[in-house]
């Protein structure tokens, strides 16, 4: 694969940009691969990438029923942070955040990582106490965060009203190296690198069945034929329970739509990410100028990937006291993605009850930020049978009661 560079852009400019090769191949599925990954979202593609890069396993197919990155990966609000409370979470999210720092160079693909800083507002005394505790935990974990007062919040984000009558801003948990990245570029960058290593990315190919023999996986049935494999990774977010049912086991996962919306584009007015968890809304400004606004999950389980009117009203109403300027903006579009939530709001990166099947799911409302770390850990688990980063996130923790409770850090926010 030809490298992208300033010289390549200049050369192509002279050739009217007709000479670019396709970023990834679209091959017909082969009869057998060493590893099949179901789901070409960020986590599936990152898993494939690190299988090749870190472990030399390249007989890999990534199978996607729709289009690459068309699931939650291309639908999220792109917040990247690692200020979680529990040690195992801080470890994997910080690994991911630090990989994001150099991902564009690593993949030779601009994922537009923008460490502009993320603040989580404290708008009740309870929240202020909780975030101070998180700062102490993060200090011990080696994650750089700090507690900042209301005046500093206002300096960092002048459009904010910090003296709201119901929910004044008491301070914030600030992570200066948190930020955003371009979501679909992350999927595209990994896909291009996987294709370059000789892996097959097969789109428009739905897995309809999982074949096993003597308690061991042997392959998958798809809408484009049978594919045999030695190891199978299920990385399908909100459809994890559906795929697990095909393999004959159940998962402690609930699936529901999570919604987001964007405003009309306006001039640059906010260069940080703000999350307001008490009122329940979060916002950043995209490079196009749109205010990117995240809401909550639907109050019932479902598999619909669309928005609903009352969510626009609820989310904008929640934010307007703190961001009065929102009342003068038109909302442009909204959408939903199917998120996969566990009871402790932590992911599952694990072996499964069927030998050879591995699970990566349960990232719920906050897995975009984890993509590089998750792929790193899942690849290690699939290649070596063990991964220190993944070990605490095993499926057995639900039976053994070893929950990694992140419901404060992840249950609402992203
Ligand atoms: C509105 C919204 C806002 C969010 N905001 C944030 C945020 O700000 N920060 C953050 O960190 N996270 C956020 N998230 C969460 C984040 O998007 C997800 O955790 C993450 O993208 C999950 O990635 P994935 O690769 O596991 O899943 P996906 O990207 O959903 O990929 C799974 C893929 O599996 C495919 N698939 C399913 N079934 C089959 C089958 N039978 N055969 C073949 N393929 C199949 C799907 O088509 C899909 O493409 C948000 C999510 C939503 C919906």
What does this structure look like?
It is a single chain. The longest helix has 17 residues, at 125-141. The mean pLDDT is 95. The chain is built from twelve helices and 18 strands. Strands 1, 2, 8, 9, 10, 11, 17 and 18 form an eight-stranded mixed sheet that branches. Strands 5-6-4-13-14-15-12-16 form an eight-stranded mixed sheet. Strands 3-7 form a two-stranded antiparallel sheet. Helix 2 (42-55) runs parallel beside helix 7 (183-196), helix 2 packs across helix 10 (371-384) and helix 3 (87-101) crosses helix 10 (371-384). Helix content is 30%, strand content 25%. It has two domains: 29-79 and 183-252 and 344-410, 3-Layer(bba) Sandwich (FAD/NAD(P)-binding domain); 115-179 and 255-341, D-Amino Acid Oxidase, subunit A, domain 2 (D-Amino Acid Oxidase, Chain A, domain 2, 2-Layer Sandwich), CATH 3.30.9.10. It is an alpha/beta fold and 414 residues long. The structure holds flavin-adenine dinucleotide (FAD).
Radius of gyration: 21 Å
Overall average pLDDT? 95
Low-confidence blocks of residues: none
- What is the number of strand segments? 18
């Amino acid at each position: 694969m030809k490298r992208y560079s300033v010289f390549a852009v200049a050369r192509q400019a002279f050739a009217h940009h007709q000479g670019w090769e396709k970023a990834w191949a679209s091959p017909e599925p082969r009869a057998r691969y060493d590893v099949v990954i179901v789901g070409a979202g960020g986590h599936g593609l990152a898993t494939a990438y690190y299988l090749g890069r870190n472990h030399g396993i390249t007989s890999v197919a990534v199978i996607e029923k729709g289009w690459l990155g068309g699931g939650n990966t291309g639908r999220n609000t792109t917040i990247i942070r690692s200020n979680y409370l529990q040690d195992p979470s801080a470890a994997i999210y910080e690994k991911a955040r630090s990989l994001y720092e150099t991902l564009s160079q690593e993949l030779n693909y601009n994922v537009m990582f923008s460490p502009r800083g993320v603040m989580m507002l404290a708008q009740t005394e309870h929240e202020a106490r909780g975030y101070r505790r998180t700062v102490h935990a993060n200090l011990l974990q080696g994650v750089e965060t700090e507690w900042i007062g209301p005046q500093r919040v206002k300096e960092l984000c002048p459009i904010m009203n910090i003296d709201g009558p119901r929910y004044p801003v008491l301070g914030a948990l600030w992570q200066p190296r948190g930020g955003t990245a371009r979501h679909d570029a992350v999927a595209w960058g990994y896909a291009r690198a996987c294709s370059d290593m000789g892996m097959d990315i097969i789109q428009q190919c739905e897995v309809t069945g999982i074949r096993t023999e003597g308690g061991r996986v042997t392959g998958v049935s798809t809408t484009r034929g049978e594919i045999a494999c030695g190891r199978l990774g299920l990385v399908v977010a909100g459809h994890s329970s559906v795929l697990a049912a095909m393999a004959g086991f159940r998962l402690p996962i609930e699936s529901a739509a999570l919604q987001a919306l964007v405003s009309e584009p306006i001039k640059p007015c906010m260069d940080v990410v703000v999350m307001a968890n008490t009122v329940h809304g979060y916002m950043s400004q995209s490079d196009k100028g749109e205010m990117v606004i995240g809401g909550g999950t639907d109050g019932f389980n479902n598999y619909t990937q669309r928005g609903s009117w009352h969510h626009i009203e609820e989310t904008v109403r929640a934010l307007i006291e703190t961001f009065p300027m929102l009342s003068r903006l038109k909302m442009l579009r909204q959408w939903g993605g199917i998120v996969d939530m566990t009871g402790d709001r932590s992911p599952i990166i694990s072996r499964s009850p069927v030998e050879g099947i591995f699970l990566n799911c349960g990232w719920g409302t906050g897995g975009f930020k984890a993509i590089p770390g998750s792929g790193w850990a899942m690849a290690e688990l699939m290649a070596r049978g063990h991964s220190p980063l993944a070990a605490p996130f095993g499926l057995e923790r639900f039976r053994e009661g070893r929950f990694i409770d992140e419901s404060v850090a992840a249950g609402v926010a992203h």
